[in-house]
Design brief:
Radius of gyration: 21 Å
Number of helices: 17
Strand content: under 5%
Order of helices and strands: HHHHHHEEEHHHHHHHHHHH
Helix content: over 70%
Largest sheet: 3 strands, antiparallel
Number of domains: 2
Length: 367
């Protein structure tokens, strides 16, 4: 049995595997505390459900890692198109949760196409740019990659899911930069995006504008839109250096902190584990980012390099945005913390994303 397991994991990036394992342990420990009171109230074991999702995610990760990424690239346009159909279906017949229409049910299981669409958009970009990188040297060569990104971005924005929609832009910019775009075209793209901000503001819904205003001044609506971020900062600040201890965080255990098992689980870590635990999480995600950059640098094939670039950017953004919003440094946009927040769709997609990092490292690197 040991020999079979050894052959199966042969070639996996050990540093990446260690980082992932520690994140998983942190996540389960924090979730058990964050969801304990909710389990008493609802009778649902969020911890056990998360373990099941993690087990499924690991299987998917291994399957993705062991299949050459060229196989995924060969059907990248098809899988991308399927997800566009899913996103349209969500807008027409999707299930509404907490005021957002983001879910569809497949076999009785809820699924968020917006999560997996990021990965398949990255694959489509890697395919179209990797087939002919020189096209990025012209403005016309940017049109098709831009359309590949903007279509799912608009559909997700309409759900509405502002946080996920905005993640597509940095992913796009990082991929075209590594793909070899000229600096003047990159600056032009960024300038056009900046100029369009007033239009972007006019398209936001009322609660989204409220969140942005609360970001600038949490005291504008302390019992409404600003309540969660104020409670989050109280929780993190009260943890001080070493934390209050596992299961002894008052903001957590006394139900002052909403969504503490999902988007605001970092606040629980900061309250119960203090600066030490919160700092460890930040360092782990920094190491994950650096490992992704290292894998990208060592990849000979342009398409493989673009896949790693997009995946690494996506995971880094998720961590930066989530931690930033719990600290009051970014607007609250509903972004889970990878491998730590409770949730099925996001967790499975994050495992698949890591599977692609393992995949590219095993199949097309010079190290």
């Amino acid at each position: 049995m040991f020999n079979i397991l050894s052959r199966f994991i042969k070639g996996f990036d050990k540093q990446l595997a260690i980082i992932l394992s520690i994140l998983i342990i942190f996540g389960l420990t924090a979730l058990f505390s964050a969801s304990y009171q909710k389990q008493i109230d609802t009778g649902k074991s969020f911890f056990l459900t998360q373990i099941i999702w993690m087990a499924i995610g690991m299987v998917l990760m291994f399957l993705v890692a062991k299949t050459s990424y060229n196989s995924f690239l060969s059907v990248a346009y098809i899988t991308y198109g399927i997800h566009i159909v899913f996103l349209i279906f969500v807008l027409c017949m999707g299930r509404t949760v907490l005021g957002a229409q983001r879910w569809i049910s497949i076999g009785g299981i809820g699924f968020q196409p917006s999560e997996s669409s990021k990965i398949f958009t990255i694959l489509a970009l890697a395919r179209i740019i990797g087939d002919n990188p020189r096209k990025l040297q012209t403005i016309s060569g940017l049109v098709r990659p831009f359309l590949i990104v903007v279509v799912p971005m608009i559909l997700i924005f309409k759900q509405p899911d502002l946080g996920t929609a905005l993640v597509f832009l940095p992913i796009f910019l990082s991929i075209i930069w590594v793909g070899g775009i000229k600096l003047k075209y990159m600056l032009t793209t960024i300038t056009l995006g900046t100029i369009s901000l007033p239009l972007f503001w006019s398209l936001l819904k009322g609660y989204q504008k409220s969140r942005l205003m609360v970001f600038l001044n949490p005291n504008v609506d302390p019992l409404g839109a600003g309540y969660t971020i104020n409670q989050s900062k109280i929780a993190i600040g009260s943890g001080m250096f070493s934390g209050k201890g596992w299961f002894t965080g008052t903001q957590n255990q006394l139900n002052f902190l909403p969504e503490r098992h999902t988007d605001f689980i970092f606040s629980v870590i900061g309250e119960e584990g203090g600066f030490l635990a919160a700092g460890a999480i930040v360092i782990l995600f920094l190491l994950l980012l650096l490992r992704g950059i290292k894998i990208a640098e060592g990849t000979k094939d342009i398409s493989g390099r673009l896949i790693v670039t997009g995946i690494t950017t996506m995971l880094a953004l998720h961590a930066i945005i989530n931690i930033g919003m719990t600290l009051g440094l970014m607007p609250v946009v509903g972004m889970p913390l990878p491998f730590i927040s409770y949730g099925g769709s996001a967790l499975l997609c994050n495992f698949i994303a890591i599977g692609f990092l393992f995949n590219v490292k095993m199949h097309r690197t010079v190290f």
